[in-house]
Write a structure and sequence with these properties.
alpha/beta, about 210 residues, binds S-adenosylmethionine, Rossmann fold
């Protein structure tokens, strides 16, 4: 399978976009109501987490949890992850990405994260030896992602079964209560890994129409 190149320069700025500093950060994509984001913020006080959620009600639930938690290292972002990442993040800035229980996109396989040309851009934002955690309750989703890691992205990974008492996200709790098998891939970016976006600087709210 051949993937087209992601058209980074065509991404419109997210509404009310605010730039961030070029310091090491962690990023959660599709953070839902923010359960994992708050837990991570509490357990990793020295790390900064940007938690992106595009659905308003879920984002607002995350914001509420964030306010109650008093965490100053968690930054909830109401945006689509593609334009936000393209506009905000610097090459090799991200220590870890989390993609936990993404929508399975049964009718739209091209919208699954590892099938998208955008995944190359995500990889360009990741530090060397940084990692991406991808969790799913759908064995075929994990298998397809493994296939893409081997054939397209050529990245090392470890596959893990998630413990039945894990409770990092609302969806994880729901799936494990139903007795479903939840698995995750811990994907690592080796020190010599290159992408076509390694020199692409964030658009910082500017739009390059055309
Ligand atoms: C199945 S839910 C999982 C939510 C949460 N991670 C959990 O495990 O409870 C997937 C979430 O990803 C969000 N999402 C999907 N595509 C997104 C995108 N491009 N940018 C930001 N959020 C996205 C959806 O709005 C939804 O809340």
């Amino acid at each position: 399978m051949h993937l087209r190149q992601f058209q980074a320069q065509r991404m419109q700025a997210p509404r009310d976009f605010q730039a961030i500093e070029n310091q090491p950060v962690c990023v959660e994509i599709g953070a839902g109501k923010g359960k994992h984001a708050v837990l991570f913020g509490q357990q990793q006080p020295q790390s900064k987490l940007y938690a992106i959620e595009r659905t308003r009600e879920k984002f607002e639930a995350m914001q509420k949890q964030h306010q109650l938690s008093n965490l100053n290292n968690l930054f909830p972002i109401h945006a689509d992850a593609l334009p936000w990442i393209t506009h905000a993040l610097y090459p090799a800035q991200v220590e870890q990405f989390f993609i936990l229980y993404p929508n399975p996109e049964p009718h739209n396989p091209a919208q699954r994260w590892l099938n998208m040309p955008f995944f190359e851009f995500i990889l360009s934002r990741l530090q060397f030896e940084g990692q991406i955690t991808l969790a799913s309750n759908i064995p075929e989703y994990i298998e397809e992602a493994e296939q893409q890691l081997k054939e397209i992205w050529k990245l090392p990974y470890e596959k893990q079964v998630i413990a039945s008492d894990s409770a990092r996200t609302h969806f994880e709790v729901k799936y494990l209560e139903r007795g479903e098998l939840c698995q995750q891939l811990i994907i690592r970016k080796p020190a010599d890994y290159t992408t076509r976006f390694d020199d692409f600087m964030p658009l910082l709210g500017q739009s390059h129409a055309g």
